[in-house]
Each structure stands twice: as structure tokens, then as C-alpha cells.
Amino acid sequence: MVARTPIAKKDLIAIANRIMKECDDYIDGIEVIDIRNSNEAFVFSGEYFLNEDGTPSPKTIAVFNVFKFLNTHLSQLYILEE
Predict the structure, then answer these.
(1) Is residue 1 scored above 60 in pLDDT?
(2) What are the residue ranges spanned by the domains of the chain?
(3) CB atoms within 10 A of CB 76
């Protein structure tokens, strides 16, 4: 396993917001506003575009897929600095 590089949260958020556009499911308006470590992976936070009744919308699925894309790519490379 390759050692992951420590990175500041603000720097990782900037990278995530830049590369998310490479994901096929990306739509305008998706933005990472926070990240946290969870074991060996990242948990990304942002707007989830829920329906008025709190249920997922088609945009919610796009957000989930983009955040999964980011997790797959960035969790292999980085770890948040303490």
C-alpha cells in the first residue's frame, strides 16, 4: 500500500471541487463544503438537493455518485492533517 500524503482540509476541499467535474455524474451546483476522515476513507459534505419532503431527488443521486467518485480517488492519495 502506498503511503497517503497528509493534507490540510481546505486544500483537499479545493482539490475535490476542482476534480469533481471529471465525474460523469457531475452537475452544476455540486460543491464540497466539508470533509472528514472515516477510517481509511473520506466523508464529503455539501448540498444534497433533497425534495421538499426530505426525500432524495434525481440531483441527490448525482451528488452521491460525485462524492463516491471523489472518495475513490482522493482516499487513496491523502489523509487529513490532524
Answers:
(1) no
(2) 5-80
(3) 12
